[in-house]
Amino acid sequence: MLEIYDLHKSFGKVVALDGANLKVSKGETVVIMGPSGCGKSTLIRCINRLTEPDSGRIILGGQDVLQLEGRALQELRRSVGFVFQQFNLIGRLTVLENVIFHLVLGGMDQEEAREKGRQVLAKVGLATAETRRPHELSGGQQQRVGIARALVTNPSIMLWDEPTASLDPILVGEVLEVMEELVRSTATTMVIVTHEVSFARRVAERIVFMDQGRVVEEGEPKELFEHPRSDIGRLYKKLLQH
Ligand SMILES: Nc1ncnc2c1ncn2[C@@H]1O[C@H](COP(=O)(O)OP(=O)(O)O)[C@@H](O)[C@H]1O
Ligand SMILES: [Mg+2]
User: Fold this and answer.
1) Cα torsion 30, 190, 51, 193: sign
2) Is 154 in the pocket of ligand 1 (CB under 6 A)?
3) Does residue 85 line the site of ligand 1, with CB under 6 A?
4) Number of domains comprising the chain
5) What domain range is 48 assigned to?
6) Could you give the CA distance from residue 65 to residue 198 in angstroms, rounded to a whole number?
7) What's this model's pTM, rounded to 2 decimal places?
8) Distance from Cα 136 to the centre of ligand 2, integer Å
9) Does a structural domain hold residue 67?
């Protein structure tokens, strides 16, 4: 479904990706973990070209992502759902308008888009919030709008960039619950960057550890946390013992 080969990206002198490789199968749920600054966001942002890598190869659903331009690139972006750490909602639009913004831009009929928007808002438990504006919602509710927006195009893959990292601890649970329910109820391929270790152990089919711009270790959660081979894996194991 997704294959990433030898991906490199630098920002000036800072090397964000230093030969990252990753494969994800169709329907698989993969959690990416690693210290802050190790390149997790850069890696997943390259998948739908929110960030342009310097070199490497990305194959998604048989397409050579880095070769796409214009309309084909737009179509790729529509087939990828992205959930941001900072929600990225548009303040002057209502909840429903935020969710369907890209559908309408893409030329879908308003009523059809609204109907789809309502369906995904119901999925994230926000059926009654459609006319509200982002600032009237809690952080957890805002992120659930972000999730609905990612879902509305029926993506073949969803990318999550630390979706609970900006939330008050008491609001994290409601978002993780929605995520877990989605993983269990849909066949969508998921690549989730998160520091939520217990969530990762419950939900991930595979965990991938990154360090210094590369994937350094991966495996099934239980095995990985019990017998880590990388330095970063051993650090996570220690964390779990406290
Ligand atoms: N737009 C950017 N401009 C400059 N440096 C960046 C940019 N995005 C990321 N970086 C740098 O690249 C490195 C990897 O960042 P990132 O992928 O955000 O790591 P992570 O998500 O694992 O915390 C960091 O050193 C970060 O400061
Ligand atoms: Mg990040």
Assistant:
1) negative
2) no
3) no
4) 1
5) 1-79+157-167+189-242
6) 33
7) 0.95
8) 26
9) yes
Q: Are 8 and 19 in contact (CB under 8 A)?
A: yes
Return the CATH number at 236: 3.40.50.300
Instruction: Say yes or no: CB of residue 37 within 6 Å of ligand 1.
Output: yes
Structural domain includes residue 177: no
Residue with CA at minimum distance from ligand 1 atom 11:
16
Q: Measure the CA–CA gap between 16 and 149, rounded to whole angstroms.
A: 28
- Could you tell me the two tokens for 45? 């942002």
In a domain, 223, yes or no: yes
Closest ligand 1 atom number to CA of residue 42 = 17
Answer whether 94's CB lies under 8 Å from 134's CB: no
Residue 128 domain-assigned? no
Residuewise pLDDT in 10s, the chain (242 residues): 999 999 999 999 999 999 999 999 999 999 999 999 999 999 999 999 999 999 999 999 999 999 999 999 998 988 999 999 999 999 999 999 999 999 998 899 999 999 999 999 999 999 999 999 999 999 999 999 999 999 999 999 999 999 999 999 999 999 999 999 999 999 999 999 999 999 999 999 999 999 999 999 999 999 999 999 999 999 988 887 77
